[in-house]
Structure formats: structure tokens, C-alpha cells
What does this fold into?
Amino acid sequence: MATTNISFIRRLTSIWLRETNPARLQELYDAADRARREHVGDDVHLRGLVEISNHCRRRCAYCGVNADRHLKRYRLTDDEILECARRAIALDYGTLVLQSGEDPGRSPEDVARLIRRIKQETPLAVTLSLGEWPADVYALWRDAGADRYLLRFETSNPDLYARIHPPIASDEGAGDRGGSWPHRRDALTALHRLGFEVGSGVMVGIPGQGYDDLARDLLLFRELDLDMIGIGPYLPHPDTPMGRHPERFPPLPSGEQVPNNEATTVAAVALARLLCPDANIPATTAVAVSGGEEARVHALRAGANIVMPNLTPPECRALYEIYPGKAVGIETAEAVTERLSAALARIGRRIGSGPGGRACRRAE
Ligand code: SAH
It folds into this structure.
């Protein structure tokens, strides 16, 4: 896209994000739904999520597992993770997503060994969501057989990014730019270069996030040619710096501040689908936590095509509460799958089988 077109599209995107007229919003959702059907079809792919550890070296101001929180910490063993993988297979999922904080207690070699074991013992695609690591670590994990990597950039506004991500001291191994926005962007570039399918994403409604910022985020998804895009509302956690000290993270004046509501989040999902028609876009857990099952179906009817049921053992799920409500009324992956299957039948969709990756779809 020529530069003039980019600024034109960004302005249009920003206007759509501000839209509140229900009939016009429905037009947006319908256009995204058509693009979804045309480019990625009617199958909704399920990814089994395993939260393998809640240890984290970082101090992200929004996140409930940040290093400063007094929280019982856990780390699943390889055998426990393989047990989750077997449940994923029994449920006919094609992908296992391993997510955690940036856990210095599980070495890169340990993670590589785990990946190799999953790839040897199961037919699952492996997605990692383990945060920022040096490029040689990403290379090690790619060599071990990992297929995909999820690393949200959270916001494309470098100042806002810096406000919510305190720097990491260089003695923690990240170099002097550790924790910065350019560092995160470099990490995404490295993942792309190594041949991962790369996912990224943002939170909607971070205090200080303006409509133009969110419009830029959406255009950056396109520029980065992402394979997966995760978009969820920012949900304040009371026991985090942003929850405890809201005065330090002031919102923009009303009219400029993006709200963290369902309508805006689903509009962002729809616009992401229109800008990146081939991407895999989940109806995220944060959408479902804040708006219930209906909100999840709403996102699936406005561009989304992926759901990530949680396979983490319940006692650990309760400790992986990155935002409040995430572990309330814990529902098993089995129950989610059953309910989703019924909901999808009602809207003329179905659960897909196989890994459901972007590359695999391209080859079809
Ligand atoms: N440590 C990994 C995984 C983080 S959890 C990483 O840094 O990539 C996955 C995502 O949850 C984050 O990228 C963030 O976008 C989201 N998240 C964290 N805290 C949140 C909150 N309070 N509200 C909404 N989403 C949140």
C-alpha cells in the first residue's frame, strides 16, 4: 500500500472503531463474516491451551502473574504436560499451545526437550507462547519442532508500551533494550525469519490507548503479515500496578480513550479480518470472560475462526489468573467443546479437525 493509502485506511479504521450505531456495526460484522467464510472457511479450529508455569521474571503492569505479585507459583512437569496433550488428542484438537510467564526456571534446553517429546509422541502441532527470548533460543525451539509462536505486541504506541512494561535490568539477560517496544518488534521479526507461523495481538481499552493507536495496531497486523491475531479487552486486575494505582495510568479524555467493551473489541476483530483476511483469529478467552459465551459466538460471527479451550489442570488454572475471572467457574475443555459444538451447529458452522495452520490451508 502506498503511504497515502496507509494513512487513509488508518483514518477509516479509526472511524469504524468509534462507530456506535448498531445497524452500521452489524454491517461491519457481516462484511468480516463474509471475508472469514471466503478466506478461511466455516471450520472453527480448536487449540488446547496448557499454562505450563506461572513463574515470570517480568513486571508487566497489567498482568496478574507479574514477578512482584505474592502468588503461589507452579511449574508443570513434562509428564503432566504430556497428559494434557493426550487429552487434546482425545478431544480431536490438532494443536497444543504451551503458554507461561517468562520462566527462568525452565531452561531453553528443557523446553526444547519437551517440544521434541510432544512431537515424537503425538501428531499435534505445537504453538509456543513463552514471551521474549533471544533469537538463538527461538532457533533452538524451532529446530526442536515447534510450529508456531504467539507474542502479542500489546500496543503499537511505543510510549504507552513503555508505561505498562517497566524495563528489564540487563543483568536479567535481555540486554539494555530488554522489555522495550523495539525489542518486542525485533523478537517478532526473528520469529518470522526462523519460519514460525507468527501470532501477535493487542489488548483493547488499555488506559491511555486512543482510537488512532488501535487503528495503527490493526494496520501493523497487516504490515507484519501475521498468521494469527489475538485481540481481547484489557481487564483490570486489582492486585497489579494498574489495578492498585489507576491514577498512574490515566485514561485519555472521553471521546479519545478506547473503551474495553465488547462492541469495540468485536469491531477490532472484524477490522482485523478485513485487513488480514487469511489470518487465524481467535475468539479470545478474555472476550468470553468479560461477555460470556454469547460474546464468544459474537466474535465468531464477526471474523473469528479459532477457539482455545483450556487444558491446564484446575488447581494450576486458579493460579494463572492473568486477569480476574479467568479461572472463575472453571470449565473443562471437554465441557467447552461440547457447548461450542452445539452453538456452532446453530449458526451453520462446525468444529474443524487437523492442525488448521495457515500454511496447511494454503496448501489445500
Ligand atoms: N508471557 C507470555 C504470555 C502472556 S499471557 C507473553 O508475554 O507473551 C497472554 C496475553 O494475555 C498477554 O499477551 C496479554 O495480552 C494478555 N493479558 C495479560 N494481562 C491481561 C489483562 N489484565 N487483561 C487482558 N489481557 C491480559
